[in-house]
């Protein structure tokens, strides 16, 4: 999903992927990390990001597709595999 101006005000974590169109900055909202089982403290958020990085990278590649976007955001609604959402 493209990053909106309101997303930039929300806390979250970032990483960069590279697709066929170049580099894409991926923003993972804290709510998405909480949906994956994190607690709101920074240590838990970072650990959850690391633990789920392979799936988050794959999801980012899917969301970015072949488009020329330079930034995308992963929100809690994008975390379809989480048991916390059931």
List the helices and strands and how they pair.
Elements: E1 12-19, E2 22-29, H1 30-35, H2 42-51, H3 53-64, E3 71-74
Parallel strand pairs: 2-3
Antiparallel strand pairs: 1-2
List its salient traits.
3 helices, elongated
Give a written overview of the molecule.
This protein is of the alpha+beta class and 86 residues long. The chain is 33% helix and 23% strand. The chain starts with 11 loop residues before the first strand and ends in a 12-residue tail after the last strand.
- Tell me, briefly, the overall form: elongated
Quote the distance from N terminus to C terminus: 22 Å
Number of helices: 3
Strands of the widest sheet, in order across it, are: 1-2-3
Beta-strand residue percentage: 15-25%
Spell out the helices and strands N to C.
Answer: EEHHHE
Question: What would you say about this model in short?
Answer:
By secondary structure, the protein is an alpha+beta fold. The chain is 33% helix and 23% strand. Strands 1-2-3 form a 3-stranded mixed beta sheet.
């Amino acid at each position: 999903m493209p990053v909106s101006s309101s997303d930039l005000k929300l806390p979250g974590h970032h990483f960069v992927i590279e697709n066929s169109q170049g580099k894409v900055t991926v923003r993972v909202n804290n709510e998405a990390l909480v949906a994956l089982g994190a607690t709101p403290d920074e240590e838990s958020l970072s650990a959850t990001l690391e633990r789920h990085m392979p799936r988050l990278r794959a999801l980012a590649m899917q969301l970015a597709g072949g488009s020329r976007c330079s930034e995308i955001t992963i929100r809690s609604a994008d975390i379809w595999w989480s048991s916390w959402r059931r």
